[in-house]
Amino acid sequence: MKRYTLILGTAVAASLLSTPLLALDRANTSQKGSLLVFPKVDVSGNHNTLIRIQNDYSDSVSLKCYWKNGTKFLRDFQLELTKFQPIWISAKDGGGTYAVPPFPVYQPAVEGQDAVPYQPEETDPDTGAVITPSQPAQPAIPAQPAQNINQDYLDKIGYTIDENGDISPSGSSEVGLPANATTAGELQCWAVGAGGEIRWNHLAGSATVVDATKGTAYDYNAWGFRCLVGGNGEECVVADAGRLDLDGAEYEACPKKLMGHFSPADEEIVDGVFVTQNELTIASCNQDLDVANQQFHFTMLSFNVWNEQEVKYTGASQCMDSWHSGLLGEMQNNGEHFTAESLMSKVARFKVKGFKSTTCEQADDEDTYEVDESIVTEDAGLLGVMATTYEFGTGTGFYDETGTSLRGVGNMNGFIAYDSDGEIEERSAR
Question: Where is this region: Disordered (predicted)?
Fold first, then answer.
């Protein structure tokens, strides 16, 4: 028996040693890292998102961060975390421990106005009564285009945004733009030094998404990617600076698939408790944050869904770029696979992956030479968050929300490209 145990133990150890390191080097939401990704930032209406980041090390570190809304508009900023410091950021106004730019929200175009000269008082020549009060001079107001949107991206996928921020399709692209694309998106932050990205596997983060209208809030943990090269504080670069390779060699790889479970909307899960909606937010691991040379990356989300009787539903899908948010039951194709009527089950599970598909692709329109409408898809690793809203009773207006980061399955390479020429500036806490 002892000999058998020894042989078995040796075999197990050998098996573990022979397991590829890539199987372990995958981002998740339970560990610290040098790169943090927050897939869900929402400042729509009365929503706000509170970001929390902590530095679990006895020295200070600089972070490079990018807000990105659903139209692919980018806004970068910098942070300095002191030793063992936790910080918080209010996405809506940029307040918190540090003053940072707020999350970029669409601002409509402003029509120009000519300068108006001073207008003297006009009086009645007989009575001296004031007919028209004097009017102060008005300076000219220059015309301004719409702010905080990426017009090149909107032109590519064929969408327009009116002065109220309402989104509508104007072309035939299969890529959908979420209704909250101008007021929601994601955040990425990673440790940097004077030469670019560095190893600093001591960062952790979480987000709280608040809905003041419903009086609800939910939390989720940020996805953490460890740097796998060098020592602490040293450059985290295998190939090129200005690009974070999420490949299991430089930084940890991305999940190849995501896995989640849910109770269908409009289902009474226990007496008097109803699920009103399940909102899924997905961020691709193929990200281009280079403002001057930004490239757009598209993929198709493909879902497999199972109910509690183990019946499998296939065919649900959604064409997306590098970020998408929407209700499970409103997926572009076969969204009914997530509904109570179809599942006939109070609980279900799904797996989703991003892959190359001609269904989502389109060629450039040669008649519009000033706009590139071509869309090419690619396989993509995924990060995700799901939020569920509950109502207590029917029509009572008493709500609650829960949120969770999805679980990763398998490994897939990804990247974050950015402009590494910008100098990192230290900022003092308020």
Answer: 117-142
Q: Return all residues near 131 (Cβ < 8 A) that are at least 6 apart.
A: 122, 123, 124
Residues 6+ apart with CB under 8 A from 195: 235, 237, 241
Mean pLDDT confidence for 198-203? 98
For residue 144, the number of C-alpha atoms closer than 13 Å in the C-beta half-sphere is 12
| Residue found by looking up tokens 């009787």 in the block | 309
The mean of the pLDDT values for the chain is 89
Mean pLDDT calculated for residue range 344-368: 94
Distances (CA, A) of 217 to 42, 48, 180, 264, 401: 12, 9, 18, 20, 6
The pLDDT confidence band at residue 11, using thresholds 50, 70 and 90, is very low
- List Cβ neighbours of 18 (8 Å cut-off, separation of 6 or more): none
Q: Show the tokens assigned to 241.
A: 């600076």
- Pick from 54, 6, 76: which is nearest to 222 by CA? 54
Q: CA distances (Å), 172 to each of 157, 165, 167, 175, in order?
A: 8, 21, 15, 9
What distance in Å separates the CA atoms of residue 185 and residue 105, rounded to the nearest whole number? 10
Residues 392, 400 contacting (CB under 8 angstroms): yes
Closest by CA to 233, choosing from 202, 212, 188, 265, is 202
**Could you tell me which of 205, 251, 192, 247 has the C-alpha nearest to residue 225?**
251
CB-CB neighbours of 245 under 10 Å? 19
Q: What is the pLDDT of residues 128-179, one digit of tens each?
A: 888 888 888 888 777 777 889 999 999 999 999 988 888 898 888 999 899 9
Q: Which two tokens stand for residue 348?
A: 């279900």
Phi (first) and psi of residue 128, to 5 degrees: 80, 5
Q: Say which DSSP state 332 is in.
A: T
Q: Which of the four pLDDT bands, split at 50, 70 and 90, describes residue 369?
A: confident
Judge contact between 258 and 384, C-beta under 8 A. yes
Q: Which of 49, 35, 32 is nearest to 89 (CA)?
A: 49
Is 253 within 8 Å of 409 (Cβ atoms)? no
**Dist CA 208 CA 90 (whole Å):** 10
> Residue written as tokens 């030479």?
369
